[in-house]
Amino acid sequence: MSSTPLAMGTSGGTLAATIAFSFLMGALALYTLLHHREVFAWMKQIRKTDAEDAVYDEPDQWLADLYKAQCRRAKKPSRAEDMEDISQTGDMLRGVAGHIEAIRPELAKVVERVDDYLDTALPAPTPALKVSHQDHQVQLVQAMKQEAARAELAQAISSARQKITVLRRG
User: Fold this and answer.
1) Which of 65, 103, 106, 117 is the most buried (most CB within 10 A)?
2) What keywords tag this UniProt record (predicted)?
């Protein structure tokens, strides 16, 4: 007895292989579709997180600049004209402190510490050739107050930057 092929060049084995291959390709297409859906959802979440974190970029950069500026003045008594960059950065932070709710207390503390530090600026030098002992003592006390205010400013900056890092990590 001979078997009759279903169509010219087609036998039962070839037909079964074609059907099995079709199911395999369908399963692969379904897996690919599900995988792409997960990837696109992940990318959407990453974009959302990046957009939320962009709010902290400028304040974080200003805090970094402020930290560098105050480090340059460590253990160096400064006059008001030497503190221009600290004053300017403090004003920029004051401008955004009220707009970013999540770090408002930290930025307010930094701005307060900047003001305290700026208040300790040494007076302009007098044209006197010789400084009295009393004036020298006053300047030393003022310089020590300035250094203490600078250390408090550095601590406030570090605290604010840590808060931003925690918020970015989520």
Assistant:
1) 117
2) Membrane, Transmembrane, Transmembrane helix
pLDDT digits (tens, 9 = 90+) for 21-42: 999 999 999 999 999 999 999 9
What's the length of the chain? 170
Consecutive H or E run containing 39: helix 12-53
**Residue 6: band (very low, low, confident or very high) from pLDDT cuts 50, 70, 90:** low
Number of neighbouring beta carbons within 10 Å of residue 62 = 21
Give the closest residue to 109 by CA, choosing from 120, 97, 100: 97
pLDDT at 16 over 60: yes
Global confidence as pTM: 0.71
The pLDDT of residue 162: 96
The gap between the terminal CA atoms of the chain, to the nearest Å, is 75
Q: Is 110 in contact with 63 (CB distance < 8 Å)?
A: yes
| Angular region, 10: left φ>0, alpha ψ -120 to 50, beta rest | beta
Q: Which residues contact 18 (CB under 8 A, 6 or more apart)?
A: none
**Alpha carbons 113 and 61: distance in angstroms, whole number:** 18
Mean pLDDT of 49-69: 90
| Tokens at 106, concatenated | 């930290």
